[in-house]
């Protein structure tokens, strides 16, 4: 508009480190672009060092008769005071120093040159980046796909469904609920996890707007934002969920025993099983890979079919694919625990009483295999297979001393370099549960740094110490079997000594890793996993739930380790995003399709207009 | 007692080969992994802490580096890649420099150029001196017997004089080591009788390297022992039986059987170590300081020239044998003069002394402690 005729004389100063996550910006190209913008009379590359001497800049301002300055780069804010000062020294308007920050504009997650150019164009025109570079919006299909039915997926699905919109909830395993369903208590409030989650699960199961696709996986995604075509593989369940009344008759006759995934393998389940009594959908499924009838192609067994009073079991059911059309996709695939057997010195998988965190969750869970009794694991000889088995016997002796080792697989260059964020707190929770159930047992925490960062967490830590738990600063290094029992060895770095003493049970606070298959899913969806495998958000600070693909969102741990409150918060935020899009009837296209020319044109168009005068892409309608 | 921190300590240690000390976040993994870390000597993490804090006074009085044999398990399992094993190695170099009263050791460790220059200088002086001496009283065409270029009797005197000087230098450094690690510590008092009672530990550790054999990995100890025993055998042959070794052309098997075995041991272990360092086959071969290369190169050169001059002599090429003998000595003299008191060889004294002192210290500390030891965790509660 007025920009071409404006008397503005703008100098663009580039201060870009060209390192780190914004390293891919081609600065020469961006400078070339900047020179063609209206009003730009000079561009200068300054490097990323200390801010320039204001006197030099003031001399430039005088010489070129500049009226406005733009500082462009990955962190231009650090340079601003020097330029403001220069502007004052030169007698100009100190407010006419603008920033074009590549990082804030999301240059890392999209076509970096294009975004950097757009950022410069916006600063030159004096238009907020978000206003000019809002990607175009396209009509949206009202249905939503949620991938993963842990607490994040459940929360998102419920909120969208309760607002009156359709959700397809895809879950890989037999039941929804995810890891939270396995937990006994949540930190720091020590609420019963099941009491929080199972009502939500039931609500999901009963909601008309939610279509649960358990035993299913997303195979392919086509189409574009607002109108995705999704192919979902529905693996054969072999039990009709409507007819099944969960009478357990089939389970009792099934001859096949395999370790239960839900109980982390500390007890067995049958080939026809329900993960746990409150599973949703509340019906049995058949593990086709273990079922004798399926594996022998109908020649063997079939006992469950004969026993079922409702004729609900169809062992010949085949897997099939379904096609869904959705407007938005929410990824909430969560995590898998780090495999502690990779660190041999802890003896996980070799010593029966070295347990992973999830195993202990099941052991201490009131609805778990021992009814919540914390007992030591004993070895037994299986009469049939003649192999040694590890079993939790409810009558076995309780451990007299329990050691909890932090940071297993986390903050470790040899495994995962990142902090898994939840382990410190759940380890403290474990210590509390041990002390609560076994007041005479001693409990040790071997930690490196206690990361009690959330509301009430530090207080929880203090409380645990008051309960008589020994906290030892120093990560234990090894657990060894001696003839008279297990011995743990570690350094107490505060008291500068080696600690070596017998323990009956060792709990390994194994860290979190992206769920198995997350990488494949990312390539199916076209979103980016980071170096550690977590899905990359669009902008860490300003758009932590968006992705580079317009209508695909991330919620929960799949975006990065987080605890339940943070997961629920993020899941709710995603629901708000999705609902905003569904209610407005439109969704923004992928950031990748933003062109810098378009952004520059937008900025030029918007220059001089107040943001409030620009109408919303579509007025929300209230019903 | 107030301790002055030296903020440049890590930078200083880096010249001695330390790497990535700042990465350490004190999880204690290395200490718990180390089989030698016990009640009194808890390492290597604490030394990493001294380094980060710049406590050079504490580090100077620290015996722990001498208790570490660099099996490398701590470095392998370090979650931060902070290389505690290599840090202990560089601290041994740093301590060697600290114990040395001449300051030459520190110069050689910090500057490979200085060390090479010194080696060349000593080698040239040796070559020139031996040549002039040989020509003045014999013929270069005669290896042994009357009119020999370098007769065993003269070399023998030369050897003993050199040995005397080196032992004196090293001895002074050992006394300094005692003062830093034991003598200056007012808190731990060890009665002189105890020093006498445990004195057997020095030859015991020197000859068997018993402690090295207690590492989880045995082969480095075996290699090291073969190298050390070969070297020792050669030393004994040269210091006491030089006339037998040098007389020819008949082979005196009573001496030569030992000589051949030792030569073979030296060559094999040196080549093994060289190729290990080149290919980085083991944790303790991952990082090589310049002095490691110089040490191995000199050792190999000395062994090979020694063998060659021996073959030439027995083969009747006496002139060539004499020339190579001078070359051989041009390797031997700098190796011994520079390495024994000032560089890597000095650990033949510091290590057994380290074991000896640490045993004394351990006994004294444990005896001073309350015999009724409280449960290990009792004090940890409020950590």
Q: Features of this protein?
A:
heterodimer, A: about 625 residues, alpha/beta, Rossmann fold, FAD/NAD(P)-binding domain, Alpha-Beta Plaits, 4 domains, five-stranded parallel sheet, 16 helices, B: about 375 residues, mainly alpha, Fumarate Reductase Iron-sulfur Protein, Chain B, domain 2, Fumarate Reductase Cytochrome B subunit, 2 domains, 17 helices, elongated
What report would you give on this structure?
The complex is a heterodimer of chains A (about 625) and B (about 375). Chain A has about 625 residues and is α/β, with parallel strands linked by helices. Chain A contains 16 helices and 32 strands. Chain A folds into four domains: about 1-135 and about 595-615, Rossmann fold (3-Layer(aba) Sandwich), CATH 3.40.50; about 135-235 and about 320-335 and about 515-590, FAD/NAD(P)-binding domain; about 235-320, Alpha-Beta Plaits (2-Layer Sandwich); about 335-515, FAD/NAD(P)-binding domain, CATH 3.50.50. In chain A, the strands form eleven sheets. Chain A has a five-stranded parallel β-sheet, with helices on one face. Chain A has a five-stranded parallel β-sheet with strand order 20-29-23-24-25. In chain A, a hairpin with a 4-residue loop joins strand 8 and strand 9. Chain A is globular. The relative contact order of chain A is 0.13. Chain B has two domains: about 10-100, Fumarate Reductase Iron-sulfur Protein, Chain B, domain 2; about 105-365, Fumarate Reductase Cytochrome B subunit, CATH 1.20.950. Chain B is about 65% helix and about 0% strand. Chain B has helices at about 10-15, 30-35, 45-55, 55-60, 65, 75, 85-100, 105-110, 110-135, 150-185, 190-195, 200-210, 220-245, 255-280, 290-315, 320-340, 345-370. Chain B is elongated. The two termini of chain B are about 25 Å apart.
